[in-house]
Structures are given as structure tokens and as C-alpha cells.
What we know:
The chain is mainly α. It is 62% helix and 0% strand.
Amino acid sequence: MLLAERLWPKRVRTQAEPARTLSNLALGATSLAVAAVVQRPLALPLAARVAARRQGLAQQLPAPLRDLAAMLLLDWSNYHWHVATHRIGWLWRLHLVHHSDRDMDASTALRFHAVDMGVSVALRLAQVRLLGVSPRALALWEGFFFASVLFHHADLELPFDAPLAWLLTTPGMHDIHHRADVAALDSNFSAGLSLWDRLHGTFSDEQPAVPIGVPGVAATGLGDALRLTVSRT
């Protein structure tokens, strides 16, 4: 991905490197640590119990359909969680750390506040229990989701971006979501399959002529990003 971004870049960088990327990686390390130390030890045993006891929505289906249904439900519910992080004040203050990057590439995919990741642990546990997610479905979806997030944050100019956006969230589609424009920030919330935005009326292919970032936010370094959570309302 890093090589592809350098061969086919979409945008001109505005921030000094490698300081920006190192800040993103530092934030990403803390977030991934939360996932490894808190989320995984809780979610995997829960998923095993859910599958063994046939609990949750997907587990009520015939066996061949359970994992597929669970993965679709995970992706759909994650869309709604993303919408919530933009529209609920305290969630937005955490999610703002991600959007405050004034350039965007694959490292932006890792730029999340550790508390943001910690809050999402409760979401993942609720998803597993209510949706009926087995360990296999959880592992497959999380692998797909992580690859998708790295891909659609990448600084890539793809000639097939528009047709691919009918199926998956693409760099061109997510570029719009990260523009410093109120309407753009309120569109293209999908992070895996792109159909959720089309289904719920939040899809946009209109590229605003504004930079990457958030209106009125000028965060750059690691310290600036962390201070956003206590300085913004």
C-alpha cells in the first residue's frame, strides 16, 4: 500500500514528513494495543459461546448462511456506529482525532484515539452477542475490515475507482468524507461494503474543492490531536 501510494498519488502533501506519519503510527499503536489487550480477549470467548448456544440473529439461520449473514450485519451495524461518531457530541470529540489529519494516506487509517477504540469495545461485544457472530465470522470480517480501512484511506488515484465504489468503499469515495466541508463530512460513512451509503441515502460522489481536514480545526502533531478531545465541544 505504501508503495502504491507513491506510484499513483492522488493529493499533494501539506504537512512535514516523517513527523506526521510518526504521529499517526503512535496513535495507531495505542489503539491497536487496546484492541489486542481488551477487545480480542473479550470478543473471541463471547463469539465461541454465541456459536455454541446459537444466540443472536445470524445463528437462527441455516448453518451455511450464518457466517455470511453475521459478516453483513457487522458491516451494516458498523456503518451506523460511524454515523453516530459524527452526530453524537462526545463520540465526535474522540473521532475528531482521526479527521484532524490534514493529509490522508494509509497511516490515517491507524490514527484513532485509544479512548475511541476503548469505547468501540462495547460496540463489538454487543455486535457479537446480538448479531450472532461466530469466531470464524468475526475473524474473517475483521480481516476484511482492516484491509478495507487501509485501502480506502490510501492516497491513491485509481482509474477504476468509480465502478469499484458500487461494491467497496474506495479511496475516491472516502476522500470526500475527509474533506473540510460540512456536507462532505456527513456522507460516505461506509467502511467495508459501499452499499450502506446508497441504501441509507448518505452516498456522495461530489468532490468539494476544499482541503482534507475539518472546518476550523488545525491539528497537526500528536499533542495537538490529543488536546482536541478536551478543547472541542
